[in-house]
Amino acid sequence: MPWLYAVPWIFLLLGIAPLWFYSQREDLYPGLAYLMAALILTGAASLYNRAPAAAVVRLCWVIGLGLLGYTVATHAALNLTSMPVFYQGSAAVAALGAGVAVLCGLYFLQQRETLPSLQQESYRERGGAMNRAALMALAPSLEPMAAARPMMMLMLQTAPDQAPEPILQTLRGPDLVFRLGEGRYLLILQEGGPQAVAPVFKRLKQNVQIQAYAALPYEGGPLDKALGQLEAELEHIYLTQPGI
Length: 244
Fold this sequence. Notes:
Blueprint: H1 7-16, H2 31-47, H3 55-80, H4 88-111, E1 130-131, H5 132-148, E2 151-158, H6 165-170, E3 176-181, E4 184-189, H7 197-207, E5 210-218, H8 223-240
Parallel strand pairs: 1-3
Antiparallel strand pairs: 2-4, 2-5, 3-4
Helix pairs in contact: 1-2, 1-3, 2-3, 3-4
């Protein structure tokens, strides 16, 4: 949602609009302090549009901080002009909305900590491994999860007729296995970081004939970009050192 960054600035303009319609007061304190705080909150709310989180989480946070900026901007206008005090009511409603929006963002963030279950048969290969369609279906959940808790991606090139069962039996419970092509598997290690690769790879070598492999730390961002980088690296290794 590229337009989302503008929403907090609209809230700010609404909050300070009375500055153009009501007479100014001589005393600038604490009105100017409120105005500076409103500008900082609005800028922070606008930047939250780039936060490494799901779209619905970013939406809630941007609106929540934007409404909080509107509340502070309204208090700035109240202290800098002779506007009617009943405007404080809109500031109170905005503050209530800000709290609700931030709580909703936290709720959706927690919901994204668990990967959705893919029950359709079209997402599974024979032997239990998931396919590329399943990987793309999980991408909206994997991307924010990896931003909060980095994962490791390990891609293997094995024999074309390699069955997924030995790989599945080797991995830990939270790890994911995807079959991307003839003998090509993608493993996503959700726990342990880079230190998890060595013991997992050691167990794999005992059960699977690995022709080439490539590993990449995944810290969020577009999953297809990370996947393309891994595939390019694997192709290079496979072509130049086929005896791995």
